[in-house]
Amino acid sequence: MSKPAYQRVLLKLSGEALAGKNGSGIDIKVIRQIAEDVKSAYDLGIELGVVIGGGNIFRGIAASATGMDRSSSDYMGMLATCINALALQEAFEKIGMVTRVQSAIEMAQIAEPYIRRRAMRHLEKKRVVIFAAGTGSPYFTTDTAAALRAMEINAEVILKATKVDGVYDKDPELFSDAVKFDQLTYIDMLNKGLKVMDSTAVSLSMDNKVPIITFNLSVPGNIKRVICGEKIGTIIH
Predict the structure, then answer these.
(1) 8-236: CATH topology
(2) How many whole angstroms separate alpha carbon 54 and alpha carbon 133?
C-alpha cells in the first residue's frame, strides 16, 4: 500500500463537481465516483476534512450581481452547501466511511454545529468531517472557508479539486496556448490574478504556510495520488 505524504488533509470540492455534465443539481453517478476516490485515500489511514461548495444549486455571488441583496444571496448559497454535504455524507457512508457533517449555521436536525474541538476529536477517531455552510458569514466564499477550516484543524495541506489539471496562465478551455504552472508562490498567485482560489483564501494560506495543491478531480485515483505525494496538478506554496 502506498504511504501518504500527509496525515491530516483538507479537501475542497466545488459544488459544480457534483453536477457532472448536467451543469446543475447532483449527478448520483458522479458523487459515487467521488466517494470511491475519497475512500481510496481514506483507506491510507489519513485524517480528512471536506469543505463543499454550493454552486451546482445556487451561487450567491451570481445572484447578487443581478441585484439581489448580497447577504441574503450568500446565506442562500450556504444552505445549498448543506444539501451537498448531506449528499456527500450519504455517498461516503454507503461505502464504509464514518462521517460527521458540521454546519456553520445551526440546523440541529441534519448536522452538528461547527465546534473546532469536536471536529478535531472526530478526525482523531478517523471520521471524515464534512464542513457545510461556508464560514457562516456572508461575503466569504467556500474557498475562504476551506482555508479557515484547514488552519483550525491544523491540516498539513489544502487539496483544491477542480475540473482542470492545475493552474494555467489563462483558461485552457478557451485558449489552446494556455501554459500550465507546476508550482507557484502565493505572491505569484495573487500578483497574476489567477482565479483558482480567491485572494482571501490564498492570503490566509500564505500567512499560515499551508500549501495548496490544485488538481483534476475527474481523473479516477487523483485524490490518492496527490495525498501520496505524486507530482500532479499545481502546488502553491
Answers:
(1) Carbamate kinase (3.40.1160)
(2) 9
